Amino acid sequence: MAGNITFTMIKPDAVKNGHIGAILAKINEAGFRIVAMKLTKLSPQKAGEFYAVHKERPFYGELVEFMSSGSIVAAILEKENAVEDFRTLIGATNPKEAAPGTIRALYATSIGENAVHGSDSDENAKIEGSFHFAVTEQF
Ligand code: GDP
């Protein structure tokens, strides 16, 4: 059965470009409830840990550098079928391939600087949420 929690980050490109409000509005309109949220910044070490699963990929260094280059908004979101519905809302990894109206189609600039993160499984949603938030910060 699909879980009801996903984890997202508004990435440094979208924060720098002033898209926090617009992206949160899309998330709200799509029916997600905010369980936890904060403006924060990842150190290179923390970004490396978060994306450790991509360590062998050729873009790992670039990804870690980008994700630690500026502030992010981290959030846990709740909705029925949260992981899949959020991936639909954000669109394909490469904004050129993202469906019209999706967050990445609207606000991403490139495959690397693609505006938002969305968990790819229920299991990872739990791991990623607890990477950023203590239980006492989740409501
Ligand atoms: P996602 O699940 O759609 O975020 O995509 P992946 O799990 O495949 O990749 C994780 C993140 O790595 C993406 O969101 C991008 O920020 C970054 N990324 C993926 N592919 C590339 C690439 O070819 N080049 C660069 N620079 N970054 C990439």
Classify the beta-strand content into a percent band.
Answer: 15-25%
Average pLDDT metric = 97
The top level CATH class name: Alpha Beta
Put simply, the count of helices is 7
Number of strands: 4
Oligomer: single chain
Task: Compute the CA-based radius of gyration.
Answer: 14 Å
Provide the fold topology.
Elements: E1 5-10, H1 12-16, H2 20-29, E2 33-41, H3 44-50, H4 60-67, E3 71-78, H5 82-90, H6 103-107, E4 116-118, H7 122-132
Antiparallel strand pairs: 1-3, 1-4, 2-3
Bound molecules: guanosine-5'-diphosphate.
Describe the structure.
- The protein has 139 residues and is an alpha+beta fold.
- The protein contains seven helices and four strands, in the order βααβααβααβα.
- The protein has helices at 12-16, 20-29, 44-50, 60-67, 82-90, 103-107, 122-132; strands at residues 5-10, 33-41, 71-78, 116-118.
- It has a four-stranded antiparallel beta sheet.
- The radius of gyration is 14 Å and the shape is globular.
- The mean pLDDT is 97.
- Bound molecules: guanosine-5'-diphosphate.
- The site of guanosine-5'-diphosphate has 9 residues, from α4.
Considering the chains and any ligands shown, give keywords for the structure:
139 residues, alpha+beta, Alpha-Beta Plaits, four-stranded antiparallel sheet, 7 helices, 40% helix, globular, binds guanosine-5'-diphosphate
Question: Quick summary of this structure?
Answer:
The protein is of the alpha+beta class. Helices cover 40% and strands 19% of the residues.
